[in-house]
Design a protein that fits this description.
By secondary structure, this protein is α+β, with helices and mostly antiparallel strands. 26% of the residues lie in helices and 31% in strands. The protein has four helices and ten strands; from the N terminus they run H-E-E-E-E-H-E-E-H-H-E-E-E-E. It has a six-stranded antiparallel β-sheet with strand order 1-2-3-4-6-5, with helices on one face. A two-stranded antiparallel sheet has the order 7-10.
Length: 186
């Protein structure tokens, strides 16, 4: 049903014919995610399409752009095997941006748990260790990231079963070493 509501369609080309949409992956908030084929790099990618509502106030649009910029900054600056890889961004229209990132065809932890019911302890420990490794990578001398939306649906697996943390839309960046962090939020 979400795919039928999308203004994008399978086989539609984006960014001067570079990306061909192949499969609708999902919708959330103000965005939708598509699997696409990158004709230049000869690989599948995930494209997160984020659109501002023309009816939003200037303050709401400004806040949306700020959140989008923060999400891109986090992915750009975190190069780690357990964090989704960022490739690029481009504008589809003035109020629509597309974020191109690594495509993970191994599904997500939420789907895995629904299908399997439970997972063996050894496998759970491996998933947890990789997730923790990704979270540690989000902390550096220059930037300390708090994810705020870490859940099974935001833990993806590539085709080799490697964990990839994704969806930094609600994340916060604390500049510097952050020895003391206020963990309250609206």
């Amino acid at each position: 049903n979400d795919q039928n509501l999308s203004e994008y369609k399978v086989n539609q080309a984006l960014d001067k014919e570079r990306y061909i949409l192949t499969e609708f992956s999902g919708r959330g908030g103000c965005s939708e995610v598509w699997k696409a084929f990158d004709k230049k790099e000869i690989r599948y990618v995930a494209i997160k399409i984020q659109k501002m509502d023309p009816k939003w106030s200037d303050a709401t649009k400004h806040n949306f752009i700020k959140h989008m910029g923060r999400e891109i900054t986090i992915m750009e600056s975190t190069q780690h095997q357990n964090v989704i890889e960022y490739y690029e961004r481009f504008y589809i229209a003035e109020d629509i941006i597309a974020i191109v990132m690594e495509y993970c065809d191994g599904g997500d932890l939420s789907t895995m748990l629904k299908k399997r019911g439970k997972i063996p302890e050894k496998e759970a420990k491996l998933i947890l260790a990789q997730t923790m490794s990704g979270l540690i990578a989000l902390r550096s001398k220059h930037m300390y990231v708090i994810h705020y939306d870490l859940k099974p649906g935001n833990i993806l697996f590539n085709d080799e079963g490697v964990v990839k943390i994704t969806d930094f839309g609600l994340s916060k960046i604390i500049e510097g070493n952050a020895p003391s962090i206020e963990l309250t939020s609206q």
